[in-house]
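Supplementary Note 3. Input sequence used for the single-chain structure prediction.
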Amino acid sequence: MSEKPLPDREVRQIARSVSRYPIKAPPQIIPFSEIPEERLEFLWYPYICLGTLGLLDGDPGDGKSQLCVWLCARLSRGDKLPNGDRFQPANCFLFNFEDLPGAVIKKRLEANGADLRGFLSNRGNFSLRRKWSNGWTVK
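The predicted structure, written as discrete structure tokens, is reproduced below.
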């Protein structure tokens, strides 16, 4: 930080520049007493909830990627899960920033019998607000 204050002319210039950008709406803040109760639905009870964000964490070599690929391959085919539940074949989006998609992930998917048509993967820079040429939109 500068010890000297900015000249008035420079402060006005910064203020004019900032005022050109739209103001974002502040987040809504409500007390928990106003939040309705929700029921959890599971993909694989009690491990994976539907409609939530899950994080699979562990040391290198523990098999996190293998588990994800195995599970997604089963879902892509509509196979039974270990608890006996069966789902309609589903699409999967794999976020993986450690393994090479063509050298590692695709081979694991094929080895697990996945239906590759239902798999999407990140490529290069990824934005959560993007429309791909094939019509897929992620918001």
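The mean pLDDT is 84. Residues 19 and 26 are 17 Å apart (CA to CA).
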